[in-house]
């Protein structure tokens, strides 16, 4: 078993309203920053032990599917690195 | 001016309690998943126009410093890609 860190990023699907991101964007513009769009996402870093990268990725994918993301409104992506390489 | 997408990831500093992540971890364990730790973070994708990558990175860094992160409890990192390469 090797230690891996899986990163799951959960984004709202295109077209789903994100009032929090809109508010953040307007606050930045009021501070004088120029930007054309801002999207927010949830980011999870999961430490887990698995036999290989594929197994770790599959487990993280199931976690996203069952709990971290709501498939009706969210897209997600998963990336896995060995724990020593993780930040 | 070129279009860039800056990704700002805002994490709680080591040692700052994160009850939301702890709850998520326990919920995953109750579902039968094996994991040793879970950290959550906020993830912002900012579309902006800038002269070059360095200018885009500096502006995103200032946004994190002034609004997106609270330096007392957060660490953040910034990465910038040209918008065509972004997801």
From TrEMBL, chains A, B:
GO term, biological process aspect, one: 'de novo' IMP biosynthetic process
Regions annotated as coiled coil: none
Keywords: ATP-binding, Cytoplasm, Ligase, Nucleotide-binding, Purine biosynthesis
A Pfam family this chain is assigned to: PurS
EC main group: ligase
Catalytic reactions on record: N(2)-formyl-N(1)-(5-phospho-beta-D-ribosyl)glycinamide + L-glutamine + ATP + H2O = 2-formamido-N(1)-(5-O-phospho-beta-D-ribosyl)acetamidine + L-glutamate + ADP + phosphate + H(+)
EC number: 6.3.5.3
GO molecular function: ATP binding; phosphoribosylformylglycinamidine synthase activity
Pathway entry: Purine metabolism; IMP biosynthesis via de novo pathway; 5-amino-1-(5-phospho-D-ribosyl)imidazole from N(2)-formyl-N(1)-(5-phospho-D-ribosyl)glycinamide: step 1/2
Domain of life: Archaea
Cited InterPro entries: PurS, PurS-like_sf
GO cellular component: cytoplasm
Localisation per UniProt entry: Cytoplasm
Family, per entry: Belongs to the PurS family.
Functional summary from the UniProt entry: Part of the phosphoribosylformylglycinamidine synthase complex involved in the purines biosynthetic pathway. Catalyzes the ATP-dependent conversion of formylglycinamide ribonucleotide (FGAR) and glutamine to yield formylglycinamidine ribonucleotide (FGAM) and glutamate. The FGAM synthase complex is composed of three subunits. PurQ produces an ammonia molecule by converting glutamine to glutamate. PurL transfers the ammonia molecule to FGAR to form FGAM in an ATP-dependent manner.
Subunit structure: Part of the FGAM synthase complex composed of 1 PurL, 1 PurQ and 2 PurS subunits.
UniProt-recorded name of the protein: Phosphoribosylformylglycinamidine synthase subunit PurS
UniProt source species: Halohasta litchfieldiae
